Structures are given as C-alpha cells and as structure tokens.
C-alpha cells in the first residue's frame, strides 16, 4: 500500500498489488497536463523522448524560462492560459530571465498555483539550491543524469510516482477546502 501526503509518497510494509492496479488505471484514464520549464532545447527533446520511451502520453507543455511559464499558467502577456492547469511541473533551476527558485517563490505565493506538484530536474548539485527548493515545497529534486538511458530510467520512476499519488479532480476545490478549514479552527 502506498500513502501520499503533501505530494510525497511512502510505501507501507503491506504492498497491496490490487491497490496499485486500481491507482494505475485511474491515472491512465485521466489525461493530465504537464508543464516543462526548461531553457535547453536538447534537454526538452530528451524529456520528450524519455516520455515516449516510457509511454507517457499526457500533454507536455514547454516554457523556456520562469517568466514564460508564469504567463502560460496565468494566461497573461498574450499567452493562452493552460486549461486545465498542469498537475505537475518539471522545473530546471538555471534559466535566463527568471530561474527555477524565483519561479517557485512566485507560484507558492499564488493561491491558484501553489498546490501544483513541482519536480526540479537540474544539473545543479548546489546544496543552497536543494535547500531553497525543498523549503519551497518541491515534490522532488532530481539531478539530470549524463546518459540518456539513466534519464529514461529517472522519468520511469517519476511516472510510477505520478501513478501512485491521488490528485484532487478539481484544483479549485482544493483551494476552497483549504479556505473553509480556517472557519472551523
């Protein structure tokens, strides 16, 4: 059995195969938008290839920096708003205009965007970057492997993670529920 809390999944001692199959079938039924925020076109192609090798057919939207990603998420500066909002963002740290940490700060302040699961996928092994990212509630910090085969494997692990974690059907309902809780405290 897998238990997910705050966008992190944990395996219990009792691994229930039927629960896994049910979760996998639910994830495959629902197409979810995924946003890749990456400035390197070769890395974008590698993510696209890794998705294809792992049979991930969810729509993958690409922004080449944090500013462009915010415009896509908010529907500003002539960019159409992604609808539905992505449930998952794959984020590089080192980018022009707005780096990954600055982008994380922005979305965590935004009521509509703050609950999106963000996975950092970067070449930055800097401890300060890791600490800042986790302090901004990322679901994971993944160092980009140098070989494509290792990258495909890393994406397959992400795919398994996404399949295991239950997401609310409607992100707006999450915000309303969180707001309603303050009245019952």
What Rg is obtained from the alpha carbons, in whole angstroms? 17 Å
Distance between the termini: 31 Å
Q: Report the major sheet.
A: 5 strands, parallel
- The string of secondary-structure elements, in order, is EEHEHEHEHEHEHH
Structural class from helices and strands? alpha/beta
Q: What is the tally of beta strands?
A: 7
| Name of the CATH architecture | 3-Layer(aba) Sandwich
- Helix count equals 7
Q: Considering DSSP H and I runs of 4 or more, what fraction of the residues is helical?
A: 40-55%
Overall structural domain count: 1
Low-confidence stretches: 1-28, 172-185
Lateral arrangement of strands in the main beta sheet: 4-3-5-6-7
The amount of beta strand, in percent, is 15-25%
* The level-1 CATH class: Alpha Beta
- Per the principal axes of the C-alpha atoms, what is the gross shape? globular
CATH superfamily: Response regulator
Arithmetic mean pLDDT: 77
